[in-house]
């Protein structure tokens, strides 16, 4: 770039070379605010000798996702038409149940367009939405989720001498958004369907209870049992024929809730809460103990970090 160039000149060049529209570009620069459109006339010299991380989606990827969404919409319209044409004896349906299923569901499904084959992730999310067990549980508990989306595998992953902790799910604002880690770390495969479905049950329980206390775990296990009982399809087929990854028990299920723009770890992980559980005569499962331990590690790491 020429010395008198601006950041706008830079993003124009990125658009020309990488085919990422300017409006889809975001630049992350250390010790600077996130740069996004409109970029203005900031001199390029402000970025000299600094590492620049580009976040963006190419026009081809956007077109691919749009085509996949249109295909899914067309498929749903075709199925709806087929249902309308069924004989009367087979088309009778409780109108109240139909209304509840349209209300207590996932309003929007969204894969990450910057990851490979977003249409496969969309199919995975559609399978979760259509799962008979999930539909029955959401209808019973009157759960309505604004957005169900996938989590980037590189996000919420921490490694230390004790191993690697991967957050499998995230619930923001009690059901406004639920994120699920669908893919393996290599991005080329998808995790076991029933493991992801159990993670979704866990995140749905956060619609009611934030902290990982006894009430939360009772509701979480109740939803899991209800989903398994109502799963008349008995598993179905795998998404895209890809290999699946069965996570170990050393993976935390979620990162608690999302309040006021900051992550808030789920409760129930401190010594006082453990004493309360013991006093109440309750017994935590191995998975619950592991989740609590993961929260404690994250809390201690945050406390050790110096104030800016």
Order of helices and strands: HEEEHHHEHHEEEEEHHEEHH
- Report the helical percentage: 40-55%
Report the count of strand segments.
Answer: 11
Largest sheet: 4 strands, mixed
The Cα radius of gyration reads 23 Å
User: Into which percentage range does the β-strand content fall?
Assistant: 5-15%
Number of H- or I-type helical stretches: 10
The main sheet orders its strands as 4-5-9-8
Structural class: alpha+beta
Number of domain units? 3
Label the overall shape.
globular
Spans of at least 5 consecutive residues with low confidence: 235-253, 255-284
The overall pLDDT, averaged over residues, is 76
Distance between the termini: 34 Å
Q: What's the structural blueprint in terms of helices and strands?
A:
Layout: H1 7-18, E1 26-28, E2 35-36, E3 53-55, H2 59-84, H3 88-91, H4 95-103, E4 106-110, H5 118-130, H6 132-141, E5 145-150, E6 157-160, E7 163-166, E8 169-172, E9 177-180, H7 193-205, H8 214-230, E10 257-259, E11 262-264, H9 271-279, H10 286-304
Parallel strand pairs: 4-5, 5-9
Antiparallel strand pairs: 1-2, 1-3, 6-7, 8-9, 10-11
């Amino acid at each position: 770039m020429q010395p008198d160039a601006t950041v706008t000149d830079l993003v124009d060049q990125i658009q020309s070379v990488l085919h990422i529209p300017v409006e889809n570009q975001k630049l992350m620069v250390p010790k600077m605010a996130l740069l996004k459109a409109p970029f203005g006339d900031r001199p390029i010299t402000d970025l000299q000798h600094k590492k620049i991380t580009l976040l963006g989606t190419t026009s081809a990827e956007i077109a691919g996702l749009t085509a996949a969404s249109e295909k899914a919409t067309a498929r749903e319209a075709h199925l709806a038409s087929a249902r309308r044409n069924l004989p009367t004896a087979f088309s009778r349906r409780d109108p109240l149940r139909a209304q509840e299923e349209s209300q207590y569901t996932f309003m929007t499904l969204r894969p990450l367009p910057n990851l490979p084959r977003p249409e496969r992730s969309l199919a995975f999310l559609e399978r979760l939405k259509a799962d008979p067990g999930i539909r029955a549980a959401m209808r019973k508990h009157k759960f309505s989720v604004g957005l169900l989306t996938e989590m980037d595998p590189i996000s919420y992953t921490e490694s230390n001498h004790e191993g690697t902790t991967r957050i499998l799910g995230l619930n923001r604002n009690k059901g406004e958004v639920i994120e699920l880690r669908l893919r393996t770390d290599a991005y080329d495969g998808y995790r076991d369907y029933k493991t992801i479905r159990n993670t979704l049950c866990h995140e749905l329980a956060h619609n009611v209870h934030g902290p990982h206390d006894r009430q939360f775990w009772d509701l979480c296990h109740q939803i899991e049992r209800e989903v398994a009982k109502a799963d008349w399809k008995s598993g179905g087929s795998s998404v895209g024929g890809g290999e699946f990854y069965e996570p170990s028990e050393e993976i935390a299920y979620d990162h608690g809730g999302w309040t006021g723009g900051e992550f808030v770890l789920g409760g129930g992980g401190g010594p006082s809460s453990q004493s309360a559980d013991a006093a109440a005569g309750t017994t935590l499962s191995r998975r619950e103990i592991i989740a609590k331990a993961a929260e404690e590690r994250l809390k201690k790491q945050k406390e050790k970090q110096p104030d800016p």
